[in-house]
Amino acid sequence: MSVRLTYFAGYGLAEQTRWLLAYAKVPFSQRALASFSQFDELRNDRSLLFKQLPLLEIDGLKVTQSQAMVRYVARKYFGAVGDDVWVRSDMIAEACKDCRLGMVKWPFSSSKDVHIKEFVPPLISKWFPLLDPLAEIKDDSEITYAHVLIAEMVYEYDLMFESKGLPSPSTEFKNLKDLTAKITATPQMVEYLNSDKRFPFPAEGERCDAYVENVEVVLGRR
Ligand SMILES: N[C@@H](CCC(=O)N[C@@H](CS)C(=O)NCC(=O)O)C(=O)O
Known about the structure:
It contains ten helices and four strands; from the N terminus they run βαβαββαααααααα. The protein is of the alpha+beta class. It folds into two domains: 3-76 and 192-218, Glutaredoxin (3-Layer(aba) Sandwich), CATH 3.40.30; 81-186, Glutathione S-transferase Yfyf (Class Pi), Chain A, domain 2 (Up-down Bundle). The chain has a four-stranded mixed sheet with strand order 2-1-3-4, with helices on one face. The structure holds glutathione. InterPro entries: Glutathione-S-Trfase_C_sf, Glutathione_S-Trfase_N, GST_superfamily, Thioredoxin-like_sf.
């Protein structure tokens, strides 16, 4: 089995798939593009259905569109569950996609202060109270791919607020906090989060600037 993820050197639209692969203990390699010519080659050799990243390759199958990637990995590597659980998980996954927009946009915001004080809080106050009851787990066997996505989102937002010396948004949401702690404490997630596959949080300053530069160069904007 060969699994490869192609994206930039950062989280963006690829991190959910990285977490799902890591949680499901699926070995994967990744390719962080560094130049426009690498991206252009993929656009021209038809690897990218819509000429966009990220790209997930599994045994020759080329999957793009981050949410199609997430669902494909979920279907292939997470256990079989009934239709009701699948549909609920898919709905939660869409909510996570919407809520984590503040994460995806963070590196590109011209003012991190405005972003964290004005753009992100409405996302948190809309989605966290709705997701909190859905994050309650009585037994580990209840964990679905959607729970891993919730944990990913909560974890990244906590890192974002921490990077600005602000209290973690998850503090007030017991189920979100407990679920995130549970998932990130599993041996496979500890391994992933400490591996060189996990990119550091793009904190304001050099790290963020380097990520933005990477994206702009690869997309041919600089
Ligand atoms: N709906 C797509 C959006 C993908 C997307 O916007 N990718 C950006 C990079 S994060 C891209 O490749 N932009 C280049 C382009 O659209 O030409 C997804 O979720 O994967």
